[in-house]
Specification:
By secondary structure, the chain is α/β, with parallel strands linked by helices. The protein is 42% helix and 19% strand. It folds into two domains: 128 residues, Rossmann fold (3-Layer(aba) Sandwich), CATH 3.40.50.2300; 172 residues, Response regulator (Rossmann fold, 3-Layer(aba) Sandwich). The chain contains eleven helices and 14 strands. It is globular. The termini are far apart.
């Protein structure tokens, strides 16, 4: 009788443990390269985290670490997060790529999602947005709106994503304004308001009356507003910092992707994959156009958005030459994703060198 009672008690304990385990939340962590208050890249990723929390409620527990430098620090922080018992980790900067792969090998039971990279593993997926589609649109607008024919571009790091954006914006601007010139300043940072403001001022001093940026703070927008030039926001709507300056902003909408991938992790359907979405699925979106813009400029921009979404317009359609004048794409030829993903050259007409 005593043995039966022991087994029954054990079974009851096992049942209670199973019930408790079933009720444990699915744990998801996020690693950000900037502060969540950058009002740009990391801010938008954190909105995606919040969307996950709102969507799943108590069934999911999210956490994040902000302002994590790329390199050795990233691997240490990702490792700490993996050891904390999370089920899935989103590493949200290109420079986290090698660290993500290294930690994923050590923790095969954890699922990893790396933003903007290209290295994958059985438990590592990659994802990014076709930001170059958005930059084609703002390039058209810049080409139409510049009066000095000088567009200033604040670039972060010389990686394919950034180089693609410069080329896409320039080709679009050149297509509507043959006299346009791009001046590129490399800030070598994703988030440094002081450096970004300094770069914006330097470009305006060199004659730029339109500022583009591939950095994360609204500092450049603030300078554009103060100095009476036009600008485009980056990653999020920065109109509050430049109500007169901002023509529109390319916005990153990670919410649907994050919700879908967490759901896949929960229900066991998650597989390693590469996602590269753009305007059509809504991963690349736009802030409202400034109401002071000419109607024909807005109409042209909207037509480009619609055409890209419909698949009838590709920003990299030949004929296009490389910077040195050598042929890259023949007339009507469209760049393949492999070339775009590894782009390390300027197109013809962009001046200056790409830093090594």
């Amino acid at each position: 009788m005593r043995l039966i009672k022991t087994v029954a008690a054990g079974a009851l304990a096992l049942g209670l443990a199973s019930t408790a385990q079933a009720q444990d939340p699915y744990k998801v962590g996020f690693i950000y390269v900037g502060p969540v208050g950058d009002l740009g890249w990391s801010y938008q990723h954190d909105l995606g985290r919040q969307a996950v929390q709102d969507h799943f409620g108590d069934a999911v527990e999210t956490s994040y670490v902000e302002s994590v430098p790329e390199g050795a620090d990233a691997e240490r922080v990702i490792t700490q997060m993996a050891r904390s018992g999370v089920d899935m980790i989103f590493t949200t900067s290109f420079g986290y790529m090698d660290a993500t792969i290294n930690v994923a090998e050590e923790f095969p039971e954890v699922l990893f999602e790396h933003a903007t990279g290209y290295r994958r593993a059985d438990n590592v997926s990659t994802y990014s947005a076709r930001f170059y589609e958005g930059r084609h649109v703002i390039g058209l607008m810049a080409g139409r709106m510049t009066e000095t024919n000088v567009v200033g571009y604040i670039a972060s790091f010389p990686i394919p994503e950034v180089i693609r954006g410069i080329n896409s914006a320039y080709l679009a601007a050149k297509s509507v304004n043959p006299d346009v010139e791009f001046k590129v300043v490399w800030a070598f940072t994703w988030f440094d308001p002081g450096k970004e403001a300094e770069a914006a001022n330097a470009l305006i001093d060199q004659g730029a009356d339109i500022i583009m940026q591939h950095t994360d703070s609204p500092a450049a927008m603030t300078i554009a507003e103060e100095r009476g030039v036009l600008a485009f926001g980056q990653a999020s709507n920065m109109a509050n910092f430049g109500p007169n300056a901002q023509m529109t902003s390319i916005m990153d909408d990670w919410d649907p992707y994050y919700i879908a991938r967490v759901q896949a992790g929960i229900d066991g359907s998650w597989v390693s994959t590469d996602t590269w979405d753009g305007i059509a699925p809504g991963m690349v979106a736009f802030a409202p156009f400034n109401e002071n813009l000419p109607a024909e400029v807005v109409a042209e921009a909207q037509a480009a958005i619609d055409a890209i979404a419909a698949g009838t317009l590709h920003p990299f359609t030949g004929p296009i030459n490389r910077q040195d004048g050598s042929a890259w794409l023949a007339a009507g030829e469209v760049a393949d994703d492999g070339t775009l993903a590894t782009m390390d050259f300027y197109v013809e007409g962009v001046t200056g060198d790409i830093p090594q």
